[in-house]
Amino acid sequence: MKKNGFSLIELVVAMGIIGILAAIAIPAYSAYTKTANRTDATRTMTSDAQALERCYSQNFSYTVNCNVVAGSAPSVQGYYTITIALAASTYTITATPLKAPQTNDSTCTSFTLNNAGTQGATPAGNTQTCWGST
Hints:
CATH class: Alpha Beta
Number of helices: 2
Order of helices and strands: HEEEEEH
Shape: rod-shaped
Helix content: 40-55%
Strand content: 15-25%
Largest sheet: 5 strands, antiparallel
Number of strands: 5
C-alpha cells in the first residue's frame, strides 16, 4: 500500500531548518531597519541646518527672521526627537530616538550637528557609522 504525505521526522527537520533561517534573518533585518531609519535623523538635521545657514547668510544671525525656531519636534518620519538650541551666532541640533526600533539602537543613541558643520554621535567613536559615512 502506498502512503501519501510527510512523516513526523520530515516535518520536524523542515521546522528546524526554518527556525535556523529565522534565527539568522530576523536579527539581520532588525539591524538593517535601524541603519536605514538613521537617515530620518540625519536628513531632518541637515535640512534644519540648511535653513539656519540661509537665515544667517541673509541676517547674520540664526535668531533674527528665521523660520527655524529653538525647541523640540519630531523628525519627518517620527523616529527621532530633533532639538535645536540657538544663539545669535551658533546653533546645535541634536537627535534622540523617539520610537522603536530606534530606541533599541545602541550603536547610535544620539546625533549632533553644529554651526561649524561638525557631526557627532553617541557613543563616541561611532560618528562615521551613525552619519552614514562608511
